[in-house]
Amino acid sequence: VTARVSLAGSGDEFDRLAETLNRMLDEIERLVGSIRSVTVNIAHDLKSPLTRLRGRLEMALRSIDSEGHAELVQQAIEEADGLIATFNALLSIAEAQSGGSAAEMSDLDLAQLVEDAGDLYEPLAEERSLRLEAKAEHGAVVRANREMLFQALANLIDNALKYAPSGGVVRIWAGLGPDGAELSVADHGPGIPEA
């Protein structure tokens, strides 16, 4: 936010206090900008070698004869994909914070997002002996970047499917709550330790 405290022009203690606050806000804005810049640079710098590493693993996978080794390389490729996705998310967040993706914001009905996520993850849930329930009320509309919101939802569903006990249920829900639109993913997995 670039808003600043307005000055009356009288030069009294309130004006001096407002000037001090404005200088502090300017410094905070500069520091936050530096952090964003460092985050983007780190993400860019690490994304390229990770992508090269993934390519080399793909090449190695094609030349491996042993089934056990091929599985290990495939797991390494999946880990590299996860890291690349993380860096892509960091870059997207930095872009959103700088206002670069504002043009990609639109009004989204969360019911459609839940339906798409349910269709995408239902086969994986069945494969893991889980039941996926995707329910949504129409009318829960938010202004957001669809791709980023879907990625956040996908991360939650992926974690729920990983940790829910076999035979369990993973529920995706969207609707209107007391404070507006709500989107949730719930399961009966072990949860995150309080510590």
Strand order of the largest sheet: 2-4-5
For the sheet with most strands, the description reads: 3 strands, mixed
Rounded to an integer in angstroms, the radius of gyration calculated over CA atoms is 23 Å
Report the average pLDDT across residues. 83
Global morphology: flat
Q: How widely separated are the two ends?
A: 34 Å
The helix/strand class is: alpha+beta
Q: How large is the share of residues in beta strands?
A: 15-25%
Residue windows where pLDDT falls under 50 for at least 5 positions:
none
Helix amount, in percent? 55-70%
Sequence of secondary-structure elements: HHEHEEHEE
Number of strands: 5
> Can you count the helices?
4
Please provide a brief summary of the model:
With 195 residues, this protein is α+β, with helices and mostly antiparallel strands. It is built from four helices and five strands, in the order ααβαββαββ. A hairpin with a 2-residue loop joins strand 4 and strand 5 (180-186).
Considering the chains and any ligands shown, give keywords for the structure.
195 residues, alpha+beta, two-stranded antiparallel sheet, 4 helices, 5 strands, 16% strand, flat
Notes on the protein architecture:
This protein is an alpha+beta fold. It is 60% helix and 16% strand. The chain has helices at 13-62, 67-97, 110-127, 146-163; strands at residues 105-109, 131-136, 141-145, 169-177, 180-186. The strands form two sheets. A three-stranded mixed sheet has the order 2-4-5. The chain has a two-stranded antiparallel sheet with strand order 1-3. Strand 4 and strand 5 (180-186) form a beta hairpin. It is flat and about 80 Å long. The two termini are 34 Å apart. The mean pLDDT is 83.
